[in-house]
Amino acid sequence: MRISDLMISNNYIGNTNRIKDRISNLNRQILTGNKIERPSDSPVGTSRLIRISDQSGQVATYQSNIKSSLSFLDETIFAMESIQSEVENIVSKLTEIQNPINQTNLELYADMIDNSLKIMLETANTKSDGKYIFGGTDYSSEPYGISSDNQSYQTNTDTSGEINVKFSQSVVQSINLPGLELFGTIISNKGFFNTADAVGTTTNSSSTIYDNLGNEYTLNTTYQKTAANTYQMSYDIVDGTGTTVFGAPPAAKSLEFNPLNGNLVSVDGSTSNLDFEVNVPSNRIHFVMDLKSLSENDSATSISLSANQPTDIFNTLKQISEDLRNGILPSDEMIAAVSNFNSRLISKQSEVGNTINQISTLENMLSQQSFNLQELAQNENGVDMAKAIVDLQNQDYLLQVSQKLGSIILPQTLLDYL
């Protein structure tokens, strides 16, 4: 086959252009540090980079959630430590006034308790990133304050809500300590029902409760079996004169138990909330009825009620202060209530600390995952500078050789054809 001059010329120009394209690509890669500038450069590589980018974005979001959550929890721990410092100071003062020598000026001790109470209340209303630390999920107003008549402290908002934050595809963690769990009165329903009891069987239980002023009431509960593994719980509150102040007719809840293990699985059809609030503002009564400790088994039915504290810590301390100003020493029950609150405060600090440790572990895992994704992206799109420079030098050398050969082979004039 005859090879014409035109074929030689076109082949030379095509090879030269391909070398120049490779040189241009290498220069661009060295300048930008990226192998892929357009999807057409590597469709497969582009698809991988998109997936890596999506994963990196998710990880970055989770890391941001963790950062803000740890800040919130650190504020929570700091607030609890501040409250504990004041409570321990009050416990110390309550011990001091048991000594007759220190009972000559009880009003001074009342002033000190009031000062500590003021600090505790301010700390209970602390905010972090616009959220009340102990306010649950209601950020509309301060969760704790004093009543309009200045007679008692009250809860202004629903402090039972949990702030749930997503830290990964499968991990959702509550990052707050609901104020209700720390400061509120929780009445636990404890015990079990006999699975052999006939439908219609009723069980009664009662407990003494108190309003914010220290007045005594009776909480009555009745549990009636309505079907297998199902009960109706009714309850009311009666004052010292026998007058019903809440639940006339008695309020009711439907309880359902798991037939396999006997655990309580739902209250009024809800599987997530196994407790509920009872709030009687007109009588300054506010507590939570906790049903999680109820169960079914084959033993004789036995149900009891127990409160974690007679009333919330703020009103307990207020009552102690008022009694001291009237020359009355705090009762053993009141002193025990303060000590019990201190113990609960320490326990809750431990729970929050465990939550911080768990989230910190997730933070380390996400940091490693982010590093791995960056490494994958670098392997897919990163440029090996040393190799790229050597390749550039080789291509530049080829271009020079090609140009020299072209200058020898291609130049022709009319004299070559005469």
Estimate the global geometry from the Cα principal axes: elongated
Mean pLDDT: 85
Helix content: 40-55%
CATH superfamily of the largest domain: f41 fragment of flagellin, N-terminal domain
Structure characterization notes:
This protein has seven helices and 16 strands. With about 425 residues, the chain is α+β, with helices and mostly antiparallel strands. It folds into two domains: about 35-175 and about 310-380, Up-down Bundle (f41 fragment of flagellin, N-terminal domain), CATH 1.20.1330; about 185-310, Flagellar hook protein FlgE (Tick-borne Encephalitis virus Glycoprotein, domain 1, Sandwich). Strands 7, 13, 14, 15 and 16 form a five-stranded mixed beta sheet that branches. A five-stranded antiparallel beta sheet has the order 8-9-10-11-12, with no helix packed on it. The model has no long low-confidence stretch (mean pLDDT about 85).
